[in-house]
Amino acid sequence: MKAEAMPIELLRGTRDYDPEGAIKLREITSKIEEVFKRFGFYPIETPSLESTETLNAKAYGQEARKEMYTIDGSEAGLIYDLTVPLARYFSSNRSISLPFKRYQIGRVWRREEPQKMRSRELIQADADIVGSAEPASDAEVIASTAISLESVGLTGYTILLSSRVFLSEVLSLFKVPQEKQSQAITAIDKLEKITAGGVREQLLALGIDSQSADSLLNFIAEEGGNSEKLHKLATNCPGAKAEVDRMLMVLGLLSNYHLNGEVKIDLSLARGLDYYTGAVWEFVEFEDGRRLPTIASGGRYDRLIGIYAKTQQPAVGSSIGISRIYDLVQIPDPRPTYAAVYVANIGPENLDYAMTIANFMRAAGIYTDLNLTARSISKQLEYANSMKVRYAVIVGTQERAANKVRMRDMSSRSEELLSLDEAISKAKG
């Protein structure tokens, strides 16, 4: 008895994209890339592998380092995000003109437990500005992220905005020791995942007394408008006054972009990566009143470049989770091919003519598929219909003798006998 083949299973936390999905994915990335280009960002490409020395530098923090993929027996690992490779690239290219406005779209890998909208392999689109400490650069990066999301139809987002300075001052207000603040921020960053009760337990485990933990959580969760929250912060934490003034400037500058989404100050927003130094943000959407995982995020990281270079450079950046927004974006009538025309031939004796027609159309810039099988014309048209092409160009002995083609509109089923030039004009129209 012939043994059955073992099924080859897809690795958990990764995904395949079928032709419709791959076209949708490319449409999303191309629209986002177009926004980045309109904003004056320019591309770089860096490797998917970095040295463990680069990855383990004091940039990510202990929690993130636990999620990194390293290669056994090698001094290399898969990149965790696109920001640290940017810092490494910048530090080794001293002739870069400032400000350095870079974008990059690529895959990153994280050793996470797979679940809905959380994968081990992610596709991200990043835009960063290195060399400007001005609030205008924060606003530019946030706005380019927002307009990128709007370009793919996600207009119902909310921008949650805060600052690591705010959180540090609030932690000091509630007597969290300086040496425990990084761990406390990591705990607060899990607020959406483990709720306030879970964060409270982690704060207590750090040695923070219960009264301080409760007061801290109540303070950052208190409702109110943006001005009210910032006023409360400046009143209770004098050390945050300069950062409050800066945040007010960012909010004012953002109004110039006329974004669709609402901007909300959220003092509970932590962003767990250690390299953030100032403003931090997350873009979120809601489904049936429930907050979905973050679809874009970023912040200011003015000390990261200095980890890899001899001098510090202010920097700010944002990352769009393309893998996450993929399932939220709706593409009307998705198609499994880019081809607008399918050239079908009646009988093998007309294959050469069919190839000639197809290649003339391709040379004219029309995406054109060609029958490569020995099946009947009805089967060819059935295939063309399944691929959702707009037109089928049918060639047989009569069409070849007249040096013409029969062009069928696959929607209306109407046909016309046309010259090649007329067929090309119709396909382009």
List keywords for this structure.
alpha+beta, BirA Bifunctional Protein, domain 2, Rossmann fold, about 425 residues, single chain, five-stranded mixed beta sheet, eight-stranded mixed beta sheet, 2 domains, about 40% helix, about 20% strand, elongated
Summarize the structure.
The chain is α+β, with helices and mostly antiparallel strands. The chain is 40% helix and 19% strand.
Structural summary, described in words:
The chain folds into two domains: 19-325, Bira Bifunctional Protein, Domain 2 (BirA Bifunctional Protein, domain 2), CATH 3.30.930.10; 341-428, Anticodon-binding domain (Rossmann fold), CATH 3.40.50.800. Helix content is 40%, strand content 19%. It contains 17 helices and 17 strands. The strands form four sheets. It has an eight-stranded mixed sheet. Strands 14-13-15-16-17 form a five-stranded mixed sheet, sandwiched between helices. Helix 5 crosses helix 11 (241-254). The longest helix is centred in the first third of the chain and has 20 residues, at 19-38. The chain is elongated and about 90 Å long.
Describe the secondary structure blueprint for this structure.
Elements: H1 19-38, E1 42-43, E2 49-51, H2 52-56, H3 62-66, E3 76-78, H4 83-91, E4 100-109, E5 121-130, H5 135-151, E6 158-163, H6 164-173, H7 181-188, H8 191-205, H9 210-221, H10 226-236, H11 241-254, E7 262-265, E8 279-284, E9 286-287, E10 290-291, E11 296-300, H12 304-308, E12 315-321, H13 322-325, E13 341-345, H14 351-363, E14 368-370, H15 377-386, E15 391-395, H16 397-402, E16 405-409, E17 415-418, H17 420-428
Helix pairs in contact: 1-5, 5-11, 8-9
